[in-house]
Amino acid sequence: MQPAQPPSFDGKAFVSTLTSAPGVYRHFDAAGELLYVGKAGNLRKRVGSYFLKPRMEPRIAAMVAQIARVEITVTRTEGEALLLESQLIKSLKPRYNILLRDDKSYPYIYLSGGEDYPRLAFHRGAKNLPGRYFGPYPSTYAVRESLSLMQKLFKVRQCEDSYFRNRSRPCLQYQIGRCSAPCVGLISVEDYRSDVRHAEMFLEGRSNAVIDELAEAMEQASKALQFERAAKLRDQVAALRQLQAQHHVQGASADMDVIACRIESGMACISVLFFRNGISLGTRDFFPRLPLDAVPADVLTQFITQYYLDRPVPRELILGEALADQAILAELLTQHAGRAVELKSSVRGDRAQFLQMAERNAQASLTARLASRQTLGARFDDLQKVLELPAPPRRIECFDISHTMGELTVASCVVFGPEGPEKSHYRRFNIAGITPGDDYAAMHQALTRRFRKVAEGEGARPDVLLIDGGSGQVAQALDVLKELGVSGIEVIGVAKGPGRRAGEETLVLARMASGAPGRELHPGSSSPALHLVAAVRDEAHRFAISGHRKRREKARERSALEDVPGIGARRRSALLKAFGGMQGVESAGIEELMQVKGIDRGLAERIYASLHG
């Protein structure tokens, strides 16, 4: 007897029960999977458009055919509905919605707080440290360039606190005129705070106010016959004016983003030009997911709600398309920002030129992305042929090991799919408990930690597992998969060719999908499959090296004195100053250590024992 089919969803009957109030609706299929989230100024009218229209676009019709349940949430205003829709799309990621795939945190300039000598620094991630955050900036380059300007103009320190506390003499930044050396007291707290205040004003866009203050201070210094100070202030004012002339964009608002969208071959590109304080911070491209046929206005609406409601909003958004919800969006962003935010789609003069620039950028980036996608697709198809797979792989993972003579080993795992690297799935593993320099043990540990989750039913399973190495490393991978009971994964070793020349790599096949015994392949430098494998391998290598370097730098920044109980920042600084650095502390005896203020015999003995094992 056939199992009873679930009754089909009666959309017309459901629509007759709906209110005409604004709200959000959600379409679900028979398995309970969320298909689509939408907002409506009139729920009955909007939801009814799915079930009462005689004809609709094929892809929308395909979605409607899957609808088994509709849920609604009534809101007080259409603006609330727009906000709730954006939140649900970002958190639930429905299959048929336009989704901004932008999981990166954006960089900021961080000014530390609660210190006599605050520091300026690059920051990315949670903003939970005391101090101020300026940004977000569109790229790491924009932050680095701004920090470099801060060093030249205001000489505020940018070094890490551990480095700052342990200095006994000025560093190179002081020697080249980019720091005032507060670490060794070459500037008073009051003068340093004045520099910090001017840096804050500059980052807030009040550069003219900074110039006025410095010019007034220059005149006062000149009247007081402090000519050396007056000359320094004169040079600082000149540098600020020159900076304004070089970086100011004629016609740019003090606070403005210019946004354009282009759609082609089922792919969209949104290009944003960022202007802050009349200075161009650069451009950034976004490639949202387009499951349904969409027009640029729809994509821009979803982009604005998903992007700006989590970030500081500029005073002005210049749009390449007029939006149906433009007034509602402006009101919503105004509430979010706590000040007026304007959305403009019809502009002239300089703003029209900026918009044309954004549109050209969007078209060029989209064309390049489509070409890259086609090339990548051809490489995946060729890899299927070379490895004799039943279908092109959907997920490739590659592992690599990095260390310096066995020190602080790091393993990397990078992931590639048909659209390129999937950086949100990248992983690093800090390796511990092995013989230094034992790459086989390091690989075994990293693979075990990665595939234990797969064995437990968690995490994605790759179709192809690449190992940077030959048969020995491949054997480690096979042992791990066998121990964990994980099967159905093609394991491929990527061994360097003669002379380590690119294009001559050997692929060491552990087992073929066809069941043939493992063997070696030499695809050759013209093989698209080898180009793909080499690109994935090189990315794993880069990711491993960068992780190892970060781990090594962190370890070297840490002072051995930090591990001694009873040694805080002041005593550590006193010791380093007394002995001229860590080398002097290590060579000092117990009696010599006791000569430093705050170090008694018991503490001196602990210090000596800690430093000499």
Question: What would you note in describing this structure?
Answer:
The structure is a single chain. This protein has 613 residues and is of the alpha+beta class. The chain contains 20 helices and 19 strands. Helix content is 44%, strand content 18%. The strands form 4 sheets. Strands 12, 13, 14, 15, 16, 17, 18 and 19 form an 8-stranded mixed β-sheet that branches. Strands 9-8-7-10-11 form a 5-stranded mixed β-sheet, sandwiched between helices. It has a 3-stranded antiparallel β-sheet with strand order 2-1-3. α9 (207-223) runs antiparallel to α10 (227-247) and α14 (439-455) packs parallel to α15 (471-484).
Can I get a quick summary?
The protein is an alpha+beta fold and 613 residues long.
> Could you describe the largest sheet, including whether it forms a barrel?
8 strands, mixed
Mind telling me the C-alpha Rg? 30 Å
Strand content range:
15-25%
Q: Which stretches are low in confidence, meaning pLDDT under 50 for 5 or more residues running?
A: 1-6, 512-517
Strands, count: 19
Subunit structure: Interacts with UvrB in an incision complex.
Function: The UvrABC repair system catalyzes the recognition and processing of DNA lesions. UvrC both incises the 5' and 3' sides of the lesion. The N-terminal half is responsible for the 3' incision and the C-terminal half is responsible for the 5' incision.
Main location: cytoplasm
Keywords: Cytoplasm, DNA damage, DNA excision, DNA repair, Excision nuclease, SOS response
